[in-house]
């Protein structure tokens, strides 16, 4: 099966071709991602209307480029997979309309995919990971532990009750005058910093569950920054580095400890779980990756971190998720609707037929 995937739920426009032959692991034949960072830079965040218009303008080009890179044409494709939610409604609609157009024009099937399912299934695109496995999704907009039982069955074990870690990295970078995206900037600055200089909190570690909170940590960085500025009249490069290192260490500690709890608890309930997988842009952070790998090793679990290009938003994961799910369900029809909210741990409504 060869699917053309489309992704446009946030600020990346993406198209990809993924093929799976029976009994073999799927292959990414091409994956094109066009970001919009400069378009939103002066606004300090993603502007939904600007994002939607940019997606509408770029989707056709991405499709053409993905086909050209794979040296294929629409005639070779077996169907179309598109993110149908969750995400910014304008962007999701752009993708869904484009995919419907392609499906109607070619008479080939259309599959609406949950964006989070795309992230959660990615480890099976890059590694031989059997179900069930534990997934920690840590990105700019999401943070949750999922027990992935199958292509359409996800059990949420816990997650953030406020900010996602990527969002916190971005906001903290802004607070200490580092550039966007904040994650890589903080990771770079932290290399020269002392993580112990400032005492920052490790929120919710007193609670036994797998829920997390990052908003208070961000406020603690803000307060510390004011204190340093009051005392010294400004923030030196070393102060920035120490704050970055302290913040990164706190996020790492929280993620590692909550992962330890998720693994221990669910190894008891589902002893077959032997893999800890990560996805989302924050998984690119070396300190966080190292912390999570250490925890996985403690309980003899494999640690799987797909390459960054497949961990951040991309369309290959959407095409692959549709291929995985196609074994369990038929395609959607042209009534497929965009769903800005679409929680993963409920039964996937698209499984029932039309994605309504
Ligand atoms: P979502 O996928 O949840 O809709 P998103 O598209 O913003 O959100 P991703 O593209 O997966 O998320 O990741 C982007 C986020 O990852 C940003 O918040 C960025 O700061 C963060 N990030 C990227 N690299 C690093 C890093 N090295 N360390 C920490 N955070 C990072
Ligand atoms: Fe995403």
From TrEMBL:
<feature type="binding site">
    <location>
        <position position="119"/>
    </location>
    <ligand>
        <name>Fe cation</name>
    </ligand>
</feature>
<dbReference type="InterPro" id="IPR022450">
    <property type="entry name" value="TsaD"/>
</dbReference>
<feature type="binding site">
    <location>
        <position position="170"/>
    </location>
    <ligand>
        <name>substrate</name>
    </ligand>
</feature>
<keyword id="KW-0808">Transferase</keyword>
<feature type="binding site">
    <location>
        <position position="187"/>
    </location>
    <ligand>
        <name>substrate</name>
    </ligand>
</feature>
<keyword id="KW-0408">Iron</keyword>
<keyword id="KW-0479">Metal-binding</keyword>
<feature type="domain" description="Gcp-like">
    <location>
        <begin position="27"/>
        <end position="320"/>
    </location>
</feature>
<keyword id="KW-0963">Cytoplasm</keyword>
<keyword id="KW-0012">Acyltransferase</keyword>
<feature type="binding site">
    <location>
        <position position="115"/>
    </location>
    <ligand>
        <name>Fe cation</name>
    </ligand>
</feature>
<feature type="binding site">
    <location>
        <begin position="137"/>
        <end position="141"/>
    </location>
    <ligand>
        <name>substrate</name>
    </ligand>
</feature>
<dbReference type="InterPro" id="IPR043129">
    <property type="entry name" value="ATPase_NBD"/>
</dbReference>
<keyword id="KW-0819">tRNA processing</keyword>
<dbReference type="InterPro" id="IPR017861">
    <property type="entry name" value="KAE1/TsaD"/>
</dbReference>
<dbReference type="Pfam" id="PF00814">
    <property type="entry name" value="TsaD"/>
</dbReference>
<feature type="binding site">
    <location>
        <position position="313"/>
    </location>
    <ligand>
        <name>Fe cation</name>
    </ligand>
</feature>
<feature type="binding site">
    <location>
        <position position="285"/>
    </location>
    <ligand>
        <name>substrate</name>
    </ligand>
</feature>
<feature type="binding site">
    <location>
        <position position="183"/>
    </location>
    <ligand>
        <name>substrate</name>
    </ligand>
</feature>
<protein>
    <recommendedName>
        <fullName>tRNA N6-adenosine threonylcarbamoyltransferase</fullName>
        <ecNumber>2.3.1.234</ecNumber>
    </recommendedName>
</protein>
<dbReference type="InterPro" id="IPR000905">
    <property type="entry name" value="Gcp-like_dom"/>
</dbReference>
<comment type="function">
    <text>Required for the formation of a threonylcarbamoyl group on adenosine at position 37 (t(6)A37) in tRNAs that read codons beginning with adenine. Is involved in the transfer of the threonylcarbamoyl moiety of threonylcarbamoyl-AMP (TC-AMP) to the N6 group of A37, together with TsaE and TsaB. TsaD likely plays a direct catalytic role in this reaction.</text>
</comment>
<comment type="similarity">
    <text>Belongs to the KAE1 / TsaD family.</text>
</comment>
């Amino acid at each position: 099966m060869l699917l053309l995937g489309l992704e446009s739920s946030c600020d990346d426009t993406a198209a990809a071709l993924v093929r799976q032959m029976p009994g073999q692991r799927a292959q990414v034949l091409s994956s094109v991602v066009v970001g919009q960072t400069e378009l939103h830079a002066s606004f300090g965040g993603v502007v939904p209307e600007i994002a939607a218009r940019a997606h509408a303008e770029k989707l056709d080009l991405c499709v053409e480029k993905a086909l050209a890179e794979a040296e294929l044409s629409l005639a070779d494709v077996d169907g179309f997979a598109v993110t149908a939610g969750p995400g910014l409604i304008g962007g999701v609609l752009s993708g869904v309309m484009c995919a419907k157009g392609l499906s109607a024009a070619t008479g080939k099937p259309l599959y609406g995919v949950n964006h989070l399912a795309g992230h959660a299934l990615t480890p099976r695109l890059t590694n031989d990971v059997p179900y069930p496995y534990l997934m920690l999704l840590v990105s700019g907009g999401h943070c949750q532990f999922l027990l992935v039982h199958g292509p359409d069955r996800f059990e949420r074990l816990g997650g953030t009750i406020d900010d996602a870690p990527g969002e916190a990295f971005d906001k903290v970078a802004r607070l200490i005058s580092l550039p966007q995206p904040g994650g890589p900037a903080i990771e770079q600055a932290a290399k020269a910093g002392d993580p112990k200089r400032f005492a920052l909190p490790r929120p919710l570690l007193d609670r036994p569950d797998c829920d997390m909170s990052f908003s208070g940590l961000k406020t603690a960085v803000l307060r510390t920054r004011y204190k340093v500025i009051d005392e010294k009249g400004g923030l030196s490069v070393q102060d920035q580095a120490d704050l970055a290192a302290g913040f990164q260490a706190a996020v790492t500690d929280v993620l590692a400890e909550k992962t330890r709890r998720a693994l221990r608890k669910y190894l008891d309930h589902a002893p077959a779980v032997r893999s800890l997988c990560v996805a989302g842009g924050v998984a690119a952070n070396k300190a966080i990756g190292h912390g999570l790998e250490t925890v996985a090793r403690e309980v003899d679990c494999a640690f799987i971190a797909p390459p960054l290009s497949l961990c951040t938003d991309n369309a290959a994961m959407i095409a692959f998720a549709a291929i995985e799910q196609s074994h369990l369900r038929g395609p959607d029809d042209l009534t497929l609707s965009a769903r800005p909210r679409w929680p993963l741990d409920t039964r996937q409504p698209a499984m029932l037929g039309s994605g309504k």
